[in-house]
Amino acid sequence: MNKTPVGIDIAKLKFDVAVWIERKKYKTKTFNNTPSGFSDLLKWLTVYGDCHICLEATGSYSVPLATFLVDNGIDVSIENPSRIHAFGESELSRNKTDQGDAKRIARYCALHTPSLWTPPPLSERQLTALMRHLKNLEEMKQMQENRQSVADDVVKPSLVEIISALKQQIEEIKEKIKNHIDSDPDLKKNKALLESIPGIGAILSASLLAYVGNVSKFSNSKEVVAYAGLNPKRCESGLFKGRSRLSKRGHTELRRVLYMPALAAISCNPIVKAQWQRLVSRHKGGKIGVCAAMRKLLQLAYGVLKSGVPFDAKIALASLWARRYL
């Protein structure tokens, strides 16, 4: 039985919905991005029968709505924004509006019938919420520290108190994250696998568990690299050969949390170090080398999670040598 294709373009405060009726005929409506808005959407969709809803992967915005819809028995797909962007370009779409994006997503859903999305386990969703809260607290602390450096003496004592309170909350959340992971057998096991890789510590392992989740949804390491937006984007046309650069069409937070550990891994991880030295010898250090280190660290993380085997430097180096010389 064919289901009615529905596209949703979601933002922080609202989301636009387009129901594809036939050809260029749509029904559209805008809802508040709140629990009551979710319920309003559910009521509005009842007249369209069984629906297949498609959203772009927008992390903190798409998952709560998608989870609500799945819990209420509706088929949902969450697609990489780059796929829908490429679909729009193939249609020569020029206008950029929220309702237009929702219509394009609905057409994509109708023509490509993307695979259905399954919500991550509750423990993983809770970990993601904790990691996002930690990030928010750290951003708030940084903001207050920036204000403190230029503030008048009369307000500095107040800022010191705020910063101190935020530091305490940050430590409490870090402890809560640790306890949450340790209380779940799967998360605890995967954390140990990740931290067997030199360069991956407690914060990065928790971030990978939260933002990457179950690696079985990726067919290979290239897919997880693309998910993070760390895949190279080539710029070539005719005789023109431009420089490759990161696509950045992926999980922004993953790229952020990988940056500092990648710098450390250049010194302490034999695989990342060997890659760095090879790139430097070809005059490709600097940003190119660091991005390659981020990519390699993510690939190693995918490898240990997929295989269930801790990182072994000797095996990894032997494999690297074989790929280069055999």
Largest sheet: 5 strands, mixed
Which H/E pattern describes the elements? EEEHEHEHHHHHHHEEEEHHHH
Total separate domains: 3
Helix % is 55-70%
Mass-distribution shape: globular
Q: How do the strands of the widest beta sheet line up side by side? A: 3-2-1-4-5
Secondary structure category: alpha/beta
Strand count: 9
Explained architecture:
The protein is of the alpha/beta class. It folds into three domains: 4-112, 2-Layer Sandwich (Nucleotidyltransferase, domain 5), CATH 3.30.420.40; 122-183; 195-326, no CATH class. It is 59% helix and 13% strand. The chain has helices at 35-45, 62-71, 81-90, 98-112, 122-150, 156-182, 185-194, 202-211, 221-227, 252-268, 270-281, 286-307, 313-325; strands at residues 4-10, 14-22, 25-32, 51-56, 75-79, 232-233, 236-237, 240-241, 245-246. Strands 3-2-1-4-5 form a five-stranded mixed beta sheet. Helix 8 runs antiparallel to helix 10, helix 9 crosses helix 12 (286-307) and helix 10 (252-268) packs across helix 11 (270-281). The N and C termini lie far apart (52 Å). The model is unreliable at 235-242 (pLDDT under 50).
List the main descriptive attributes of the protein structure presented here:
globular; 3 domains; 326 residues; 13 helices; alpha/beta; 5-stranded mixed beta sheet; 59% helix; Nucleotidyltransferase, domain 5
